[in-house]
TrEMBL record:
Residues 616-714 form the TRNA-binding domain. The gene is metG. It is found in: Cytoplasm. Residues 521-532 have a biased composition (Basic and acidic residues). ATP binds at T348. It comes from Halorubrum lacusprofundi (strain ATCC 49239 / DSM 5036 / JCM 8891 / ACAM 34). InterPro entries: aa-tRNA-synth_I_CS, Anticodon_Met, Met-tRNA-synth_bsu_C, Met-tRNA_ligase_1, Met-tRNA_synth, Methionyl/Leucyl_tRNA_Synth, MetRS_core, MetRS_Zn. This is Methionine--tRNA ligase. Is required not only for elongation of protein synthesis but also for the initiation of all mRNA translation through initiator tRNA(fMet) aminoacylation. Zn(2+) binds at C150, C153, C162, C166. One of its GO terms (molecular function) is tRNA binding. PANTHER family: METHIONINE--TRNA LIGASE, METHIONINE--TRNA LIGASE, CYTOPLASMIC. A motif ('HIGH' region) lies at residues 19-29.
Length: 714
């Protein structure tokens, strides 16, 4: 592994956290997998040798519990979900080089060998511990079979994790006041012999590892607290039948804890990929084993793309296992934020979710959702999905900016010229702007920012719209045909660069664009060098790549979602009246209290666990502004064009206030403005800043006393 900028000479492996084979996928789940797919495609555009792998997480108590409820074996239950996931991901153009699962022969063998290596290296030991036991049902209760109180924060907790409180991993025997989730009986603790991995011996190594780790800041910062508090050794076995057997002497028939074999699937899946394509195409050992290859003595570039709820496993347990067994440590961990729905959490039990298959069944193309999930905020930030926000991003950015430039440029070129190249070479101005977009793209990859990958393209398309508008080739065709040809050649060159650079975000749409450009080969096999080459193919008659989403469509989708959620909630009430608790719920979706105007606490988004440094805060240029003018924007139901005095200058800012404030009352209002927000074009108006407001009603932030325009918020 190197820490050189990508592309490097070492093979890269990009992995996504394993989906748990226990239920349907919704668009919240897709954020990580889309992000991983975007990132590996972006690496490939840079010319980086890359394998993209994952698999289904088949083991653990939730699978066993739900399989028992359905009257099938855990293996069959998990395999059914695995096959559904394997079929669903390609529908969203998430294309793994290998997608396995943790129960297959390869992962079983690799897992047991790695555990034997840990044992032979002196990193495992036996220990007598207290394990929850149901005396009525006469069985031990590992992990999700037991619930109780977290000993650290006092919140309700599962047997292996304080999921509702401090998010800490919990060892067997730590949960207080244990109860069986199977029978509801009070549990008691009984002594059992289990195997432990000596994680505490790797504290110094892990501190150094976090100093080296790249990716998102939450993946580096969150684990430091656990190291500072003192690492606890890790129980790696469980009292249950479903899982991979502990290798070697095993008189109590223990299986390995699911978080042992789950990350090892990354190695196993890469190995399966090599077995399918050959080591000459991709050498899994060169990537995963230090010293396995003379050409790659330090191994490859390992990048994990995960949800932030499993940071601890990927930055403490997993790298310690890799270090103990001479495997390559991860170069980067990209930990995503969560996806909420209309400001609230997804509720699968109450059917308050946009399901993956539902999105496709509604007739939407996968690439606009990929764009929304990849570019709506930084990767580690939470993203809120609503059909309104989705419509606005699609209509303004994909249709209004990217699609508008591509269609008008290629249509004009096709109607006025026989083929490309139309001129001998791309103009200096446009060639420099394409080069700038490539540099932004490369920087985005090395900053682990999938959002910036998309921004590099939309910014280039925005430039293209401005360039064709000011050049007016339709006027030059008769008066200066040579200049007209140069302008259109430049526009087609920009379109080709967009096809290459936008491929990671919108692979299917850019494949269609590539065909319209008449270029040879596949856009999926190009590198950024193709973006520099200029157009060469015979142009086909273009069609518009992205479709406008109408307001009526959004209203119908919202009505459908609300009706479904209400039906599910009615079902919950009926279950309660009949004494049937129905599906277990985590309590996060309680009904609103209609007797008070105060917001129910379940409507308040939880405070983020992600912290920023004081230096990061200092980079935010937040100023007091005064609205001087406010007017609606034609064609935009919610948007206003504001002229805001910021002291040193007056700026145009677009804000979604039209339906929530009296437009005539806004001039003279003091507001708080994020002044160094990236510029954005919305319905043809360039917005240069962001007005800050609170909640769904857009309660404008203002000042208590007399701070004037331009005053900096500290």
């Amino acid at each position: 592994m190197s820490h050189d900028d990508f592309p490097t000479d070492d093979p890269a492996v990009v992995t996504c956290g394993l989906p748990y084979a226990n239920g349907d996928l919704h668009i919240g789940h897709l954020r990580t997998y889309v992000g991983g797919d975007v990132y590996r495609r972006a690496l490939e555009r840079l010319g980086q040798e890359t394998a993209f792998v994952s698999g289904s997480d088949m083991h653990g108590t939730p699978v066993a519990v739900n399989a028992e409820q359905e009257g099938v074996s855990p293996e069959q239950f998990a395999l059914d979900w695995h096959e559904q996931y394997a079929a669903t991901f390609p529908k969203f153009n998430v294309e793994f080089d290998n997608y396995g699962h943790t129960h297959d022969e390869t992962n079983t063998a690799v897992t047991q060998q790695l555990v034997r290596d840990l044992d032979e290296g002196g990193h495992l030991y036996e220990k007598e511990i207290m394990v929850a036991y149901d005396p009525v049902d006469d069985q031990f209760l590992p992990d999700r079979y037991v619930e109780g109180t977290c000993p650290y924060c006092g919140a309700h907790a599962r047997g292996d994790e304080c999921d509702e409180g401090c998010q800490r991993h919990l060892e067997p025997g730590e949960v207080e006041d244990p109860e069986s989730t199977i029978t509801g009986n009070p549990a008691e603790y009984r002594e059992r012999t289990h195997q432990f991995f000596e994680v505490s011996a790797f504290s110094e190594y892990l501190s150094g590892f976090l100093d080296r780790l790249e990716g998102t800041s939450n993946a580096r910062n969150q684990p430091r607290e656990w190291i500072e508090q003192g690492l606890q050794d890790w129980c790696i076995t469980r009292d249950m039948d479903w899982g991979i057997d502990y290798p070697g002497e095993n008189p109590q028939d223990l299986v390995l804890y699911v978080w042992v074999d789950a990350p090892i699937e990354y190695i196993s899946s890469t190995k399966q990929y090599t077995e399918r394509v050959g080591a000459d195409a991709f050498d899994w050992e060169a990537a995963w084993k230090e010293g396995a290859s003379d050409a790659h003595p330090e191994g490859g570039e390992i990048v994990h793309v995960i949800g932030r709820d499993i940071i601890q496993h990927h930055t403490i347990f997993w790298p310690a296992m890799l270090e103990a067994t001479d495997h390559t440590e991860p170069r980067a961990v990209m930990a995503s934020g969560f996806v909420t729905l209309g400001g609230k959490g997804f509720s699968t039990s109450r059917d308050r979710a946009v399901w993956a298959d539902e999105y496709l069944d509604e007739g939407f193309h996968p690439d606009p959702l990929r764009y929304y999930l990849a570019t709506n905020g930084g990767f580690q930030q939470d993203v809120d999905f609503s059909w309104e926000k989705f419509r606005d991003r699609v209509n303004t950015e994909l249709v209004g900016t990217v699609g508008n430039f591509l269609y008008r440029s290629l249509l004009f070129a096709h109607r006025n010229y026989d083929d490309a190249p139309i001129a001998d070479a791309t103009s200096d101005e446009v060639a420099e702007r394409i080069e700038e977009a490539i540099a932004d793209f490369e920087a985005a990859v090395n900053d682990y920012s999938v959002r910036a990958v998309g921004d590099a393209v939309t910014d280039l398309a925005r430039f293209g719209n401005e360039y064709i508008q000011r050049s007016e080739p339709w006027k030059l065709v008769d008066d200066d045909p040579e200049e007209a040809a140069q302008v259109i050649h430049d526009c087609v060159a920009i379109a080709k660069a967009i096809a290459v650079l936008f491929e990671p975000i919108a692979p299917e749409k850019t494949e269609r664009l590539w065909d319209q450009l008449g270029e040879d080969g596949s856009v999926h096999e190009t590198t950024v060098e193709a973006a520099r080459e200029g157009p060469a193919g015979d142009l086909a008659e273009p069609t518009e790549l992205f479709e406008q989403i109408e307001d009526e469509r959004v209203e119908a989708l919202n009505e459908k979602l609300e009706a479904r959620a209400a039906e599910a909630e009615d079902g919950d009430e009926a279950d309660e009246e009949s004494g049937d608790d129905g599906e277990a719920d985590d309590g996060s979706d309680e009904a609103d209290d209609d007797t008070t105007d105060e917001p129910d606490m379940t409507d308040i988004e939880p405070l983020s666990d992600d912290r920023i440094s004081f230096d990061d805060f200092q980079e935010l240029d937040i100023r007091i502004g005064r609205i001087e003018e406010a007017e609606g924007i034609e064609g935009a139901d919610d948007l206003l064009k504001l002229r805001v005095d910021l002291g040193a200058e007056t700026r145009t800012i677009v804000a979604g206030l039209k339906q929530l404030h009296d437009v005539d009352d806004l001039p003279g209002t003091k507001v708080v403005v994020l002044a160094n927000m990236e510029k954005a074009e919305l319905f043809g108006v360039e917005s240069n800043g962001m007005v800050l407001a609170a909640g769904e009603e857009a309660d404008l932030l203002t000042t208590y006393e007399d701070a004037g325009p331009g005053t900096k918020v500290k």
